[in-house]
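USER: Fancy drafting a protein?

ASSISTANT:
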Amino acid sequence: MWSIASTLLYPLMFVLVISVVIVIHELGHYWAGRYFGAAVESFSMGFGGSIFEVKDKNNTRWRLNWLPLGGFVNFVGEGGVIENEGHPHDTDEAVLRDERKTDAPIGRPFMDLSAGARNVVALAGPFANFILAIVVFAGLAMFLGNSVEEVKVAGITENSPAAASDLQIDDIFLTVNGRQADHRSVILEEIKLSAGTPVDLQMRRGEDVVDLTITPRRETRKNVLGIKERTGMIGVEMRAMPIDRQKLGPIRAVGHGVEETFGTISTSIEMLGRILTGKESLQQLSGPVGIANVAGGMAKSTLEVEGVSLQTRLTALLIQSINLIAFISVAVGFFNLIPLPILDGGVVVLNTYEAVTGKGLPEEIVLKTKFATVILLAVLAIFITVGDIEESGLLELFGGL
């Protein structure tokens, strides 16, 4: 029974994480659109048919759909086709008063907004994702505290990059590539993203400070969640000892949230750069299966901890899930800023072209570029999903049947 329940954790955790992130993203678009007076036909949580819906004072339909995966906002006339016949571009006060007497959504067709306003609406989705991450990181720092760790070398693997260097057991990490090594995750992040690239380490050895340079080697291993990953490694076993956990005040917590959020964005940019330059494989990226692997594996490993009460395990899982939501939110916001026609970044490019030239690109060109982008992303999604399935171990499972 537990094996069946633990298997269900993967899709359930994925639905939880991705739904929160996507709904916040779409709310960003919605709030910005309403600020500029755009009419909103519907705001849907989930996809498929509606199982519950209600209209607000602006005649916007708020829908809860049967497939709980994210959501979307539907502006009137967003695709350039205005549904309200009779006055498609007339937005004077008389028309708005007439609309209030009907069931039509109140406001202006989306394409009647200026190019600048449409840019703000497009950017509001990713911005909402970044705000969510800042709030989560800040909240965790306020209520749980910002942990500081002393990370020590506990073991060195034979024939590894670390073994070929002057690194020694009991050395303590001070900095890695100039960053304060006050948390194990910081060290791992720099090493994982530096396969084939030298990493500068500053270590404390007794009373001395030692500077070292080690080049990580790309290797395949299973992480703590049991997921295969091909990443940079130097062959060091690390032992992290908490030395401080200070709860931050509101101002410092917000600063910490901003720092964590933009640090994550910086890491994403670095990873994208390494992929574009051929230093990393596209399979370093994760899609829905990869997110499900991480979320489900995290839940499974947390709930299987022995010697701890169920309440403690559930509390730990809640905290980990909230933290994961913040990281996925940053990733979704960053991805949508890529200037591809069907993403928010591409919409900004098209709107900016219209603002500069005074006219939009021909509809035929826009449709062709959108179609080409859909094909590109579909192929990319298949490639990434195959990699995610391989990392999850499902291919090995099917191969043994």
Summary: Residues 146-246 form a domain with the Pdz3 Domain fold (CATH 2.30.42.10). Strands lie at 40-55, 61-75, 146-156, 172-176, 179-180, 199-205, 208-214, 217-222, 228-233, 236-246. Residues 81-97, 393-401 have pLDDT under 50 and may be disordered. The longest strand covers residues 40-55.
